[in-house]
Specification:
Oligomer: single chain
Helix content: 40-55%
Number of strands: 4
Largest sheet: 4 strands, antiparallel
Number of domains: 2
Structural class: alpha+beta
Distance between the termini: 80 Å
Strand order of the largest sheet: 1-2-4-3
């Protein structure tokens, strides 16, 4: 209190009046706003998980979710993937055959469309996912993907 008592009454009133305002602004800036940003990010993640869950349930409820019978006269893996992507409305940026695998790159696509396409690949085309990398884009619900696909046996 000695520092405050050395101030004249006008300075003391100014310090005591500004100090609570600064404290409130600091709480808002360093506590409230970061909490709100974190809450918003978690809400978006929950919405993404609910979308995945709904897509998985819709795929499981569709008739014909059994694996197709494998036949010897199937089209090559790249042709089936390309045909299926076109039917789903997806633009494949790159297809790279790698032995029995096929690496596929999709730049920007709606996440729910991609999930349905992957489900259709597995159920209709007998194509399995060996690896997948997804990156979220700035637009909500849009992702870029790198997939490694393989024949299902």
């Amino acid at each position: 209190m000695s520092a405050l008592s050395r101030l004249n009454p006008r300075e003391r009133l100014l310090v005591l009046g500004v100090l609570p305002v600064v404290a409130v602004l600091a709480l808002i800036w360093y506590v409230w706003l970061p909490l709100q940003d974190h809450r918003r990010a978690l809400t978006e993640r929950i919405a993404d998980y609910r979308l995945v869950e709904a897509s998985a349930r819709a795929a499981a409820a569709r008739p014909g979710t059994q694996r197709p019978e494998l036949s010897q006269d199937r089209a090559p893996l790249a042709a089936r993937v390309t045909r299926s992507a076109e039917a789903a409305g997806l633009l494949l940026r790159r297809l790279e055959p790698d032995g029995g695998l096929l690496r596929v790159t999709i730049d920007e696509a709606a996440f729910d469309t991609v999930l349905l396409w992957i489900s259709d690949l597995e159920t209709d085309e007998a194509v399995g996912i060996a690896a997948i990398e997804a990156e979220r884009r700035i637009e909500p619900g849009v992702v870029s993907l790198r997939l490694t696909l393989e024949e299902m046996e």
